[in-house]
Amino acid sequence: MKKIILGIAVLAIAGVVALNVNLGTKKSGEVSLLALANIEALADGEGSGCENGCVDGGGGCYCYIWYPCYKEYNW
Amino acid sequence: MKTIRIIILFCTLLISVACSDNIKEKYQTARDNTIHIKNKVIPFDTGDVLIGSVARLYVADNYLIVADYKSLMEQIHIFGLNDYKHLVSTAYKGLGPEEITGLGHIVYDDISRNFYVSDHGKQKIFSYNIDSLIENVGYCFKEKVALKNKQFPAEYFYINDSLCIARVIEPTGNSGFNESLGKWNMLSGAIKTLDYRHPEVKKRRITFTVSPEESVYIECYLYHDLMTICKLNGASCLNIYGPNWDNTHSNKTVHFGKVIVCKDKIIASYSGGRNFSNEELPDKLIVFKLNGDYIKTLDIGYRINDFCYDSNNNKLIFIFNDIIQFGFLNLQGLVN
Questions:
Q1: Rg (alpha carbons) of chain A, rounded to whole number
Q2: Fewest CB atoms less than 10 Å from the CB: which of A59, B151, B204, B250?
Q3: What digits encode the pLDDT tens for the residues A24-49?
Q4: Under CATH, which number does the domain B25-330 receive?
Q5: Is this structure's pTM higher than 0.80?
Q6: Which strands make up the sheet holding B55-60, listed edge to edge?
């Protein structure tokens, strides 16, 4: 029984990963819609992924795209 | 062998003499001629138009452009410059063909009467004709140029289509970037960075402006008490060190904010407060002569989000992050 549950869990995780990879696929130099939505969240400080930690207020911060009114948190 | 040594010595001497002539320095140990002018700031409101906490101001002929970076609807609002009456709003936020994804800098070209809007989501600059926009509710912008991903202007001072002075961003990865000033040809996309970099500032974060009449550009450092005035042709630079200058590599203290040129004066907003705190936004304006000499400090008494110069009426227009959101200051008799 444990093996069956484990198997289902592995399949589910693999499915989610595959879906994410597919949605995140983009042409060179373009940002996908999903990525843009994620970037908004990252730059709003709701997630992580930008080493510099873009936060509100300031003269600009780069996190996949340029945010003119954010600033770097980490220095 | 002896001849080579003499040549090397001569070259070293020549370079050091040349450098000492090109880079000059001024130290201002006190900027204490402070005038408190909170009561001279006249508040005004934007009527039914609600503007978010992160906004920038631009003047375009007889209009005031307010860019609202937090808006989920229209991101650009146009007001009359004399009465601050709302005229039109545009630039819906979104990914669609008639929408702006990542609103950036705005400049106005007074010859074509177009203003240019950077979209860092689509990596393009779009052009709006201000007269058409005000007359026609359904007006749609046109694409002006595409921006490159590896090197692009965050802000720029527009002189003409082939010459802009830009704060150029070069991403170093998914996050992280270097910035420099450069001459940017909007049509061809070519960027030629301006050479001077202060040797003691490791990470450069600046605001800047240009005085085409004086052929100079002025850089103010966000995290250093330092202002640099350089000739546009790169012939010479002047570093002006304030009383809080040090070369520490840190963003703990915010120094300068925006810098503008008003007639024959430089006006720069200044904070001096701790970053990531209530003190981070500037609440003072420092007035300099164009040669960098300190004149006075205007203590505004409100935390300044942004400001712009209305040359028609010789006023500064502010957006604050304080108990009032908008206000203006008549400069007659105060600065000019």
A1: 17
A2: B250
A3: 333 333 444 444 444 454 544 444 46
A4: 2.130.10.10
A5: yes
A6: B55-60, B63-68, B74-80, B86-92
> How many other C-beta atoms are found inside a 10 Å radius of the C-beta of residue B134?
15
Query: If you write DSSP's letter for every residue of B122-137 in order, what string do you get?
Result: TTEEEEEEHHHHHH-T
| Separation of alpha carbons B195 and B189, rounded Å | 19
Ranges of beta strands (E only) in B61-205 are: 63-68, 74-80, 86-92, 103-109, 114-119, 124-129, 142-146, 152-160, 163-171, 177-184, 191-193
Q: CB–CB of A55 and B250 under 8 A? A: no
Please enumerate, as own/partner, the contacts of B87-90 that have beta carbons within 8 Å and a separation of 24 or more: B87/B63, B87/B134, B88/B133, B88/B134, B88/B137, B89/B49, B90/B128, B90/B133, B90/B139, B90/B141
- Contact flag A62-B105 (C-beta cutoff 8 Å): no
Q: How many CB atoms lie within 10 A of CB B211?
A: 18
Nearest CB to A66; choose among B154, B205, B222:
B154
- Domain spans in chain B, listed from the N-terminal domain onward: 25-330
**DSSP class of B14:** H
- Report yes or no: A19 and A12 within 8 Å, Cβ to Cβ: no
Structural contact between residues B95 and B115, judged by C-beta atoms closer than 8 angstroms:
no
Specify whether the CB–CB gap between B181 and B168 falls below 8 A.
yes
Q: Looking at residue A20, what is its pLDDT?
A: 42
Q: Do residues B319 and B54 make contact, with C-beta atoms less than 8 angstroms apart?
A: no
**pLDDT per position as a tens digit, B129-145:** 999 999 998 899 999 99
- List CB contacts of B324: < 8 A, sequence separation 6 or more: B41, B43, B302
- The answer, for A62 touching chain B at a CB cutoff of 8 Å, is yes
Q: What residues pair up with B59 in beta bridges, in sequence order? A: B64
What sign has the CA pseudo-torsion B319, A57, B27, B266?
Answer: negative
B145: left (phi over 0), alpha (psi -120 to 50) or beta: beta
Q: What angle do CA B322, B94, B161 make, to 5 degrees?
A: 85
- pLDDT of A27 reads 39
Count of CB contacts below 8 A, A vs B? 71
To the nearest 10°, report the CA torsion of A7, A9, A12, A17: -110
Amino acid in position B106: I
- Which of B95, B175, B274 to substitute to test the interface with A, most A CBs within 10 Å? B175
Residue A56, pLDDT score? 87
* CA nearest to B42, candidates B323, B322, B317, B321: B317
Q: Which residues of B touch A33 (CB under 8 A)?
A: 95
Q: Are B42 and B329 in contact (CB under 8 A)?
A: yes
